[in-house]
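Input set for joint prediction.
Command: fold jointly, output tokens.
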Amino acid sequence: MSNKGFTVWMTGLPSSGKSTLAGLLAAELQGRGLPVVNLDGDEVRMRLSKGLGFSKEDRDENIRRISYVARVASDMGGVAITSAISPYREIRDEARAEIAQFVEVFVSCPVEVCIQRDVKGLYKKALAGEIKGFTGIDDPYEEPLNPELVVHTDLESEQESIDNILGTLDRLGLLPKNETNSRATGASAVSDDEREQALTKLRGLGYVE
Amino acid sequence: MSNKGFTVWMTGLPSSGKSTLAGLLAAELQGRGLPVVNLDGDEVRMRLSKGLGFSKEDRDENIRRISYVARVASDMGGVAITSAISPYREIRDEARAEIAQFVEVFVSCPVEVCIQRDVKGLYKKALAGEIKGFTGIDDPYEEPLNPELVVHTDLESEQESIDNILGTLDRLGLLPKNETNSRATGASAVSDDEREQALTKLRGLGYVE
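tokens >
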């Protein structure tokens, strides 16, 4: 590997697609031989933040803990992928300041589409007033002003978003050199044989049929 | 590096010498080019465990969080060094079960000697009854039954303890091959020149005079 650890910090509304992309990206990077930790919001809450609630103060504290673990993982030469909503710009910028190689990916999706998806059924409860302070409904989501990448999950396929993330990582020099050709740098650099090998690999991972 | 991450889990009474050895070991391993995170008890409390107290339940939770971060760091190929008292055998064994390469170092020192050192002045307060539930005074320290190594900080110099830890890591195959000769494998494998170079390096690090 390149020996540079880094953090891919996904941020976006509930149901925007962060966790899905985080899981696919983790599998893709692991498949390339990188050490990866997927700091999934739920696991982190269980392992690091028992007792914290959902007030702004507690959510900020939760994000700071994620940031700490992501920093440690990156410093060790690994790849940390985070997928907490992380709605507040100030705390995200704290994470950016703490982590040497920080790649902020804004997972953009109109709130109307997120409400339709409502993966965990929480928008419904928030709209019914059963949950207070829900991001996107009665609590703000502050969009990143200058993220390394914006993916549009209402307009792109999951694979297109993943390809865009890989392209960004490659452009930033964060992917191992001998592995990047097959997908991240476009068709012109890839022979038919290489493409076929890559597709075979992707089929094995369940990404393409 | 060997590409195997691992965790060195120091455990022992307050003032037994855990933090000192952790700092020296971290510097030594970093000097050998390994990515190292020193999960110092105070830093971890600040970054991961704000709001937790010193009840058995809260201390257990604190140790579980340290264990989680150590696991992540080790999984990324790094070296995590922990130096929390971690007085309870059960929670240490949970950490052992969670972390693939787990090296438990029992930092042994008679409590009378620890009381004399009393680095933070806490034994004095505990003996005066101002602190309740203090490990070694009115709360138990459960010695490891089967640690990878015991160091005796009342009998050995700091450098002897560090050498013993390095020897153990080397025996377990956890140190990079081309770097271990100079210190960890005993005099017979080391030429006079090599020893002089190593001493020069150690002087530079402030370990020997």
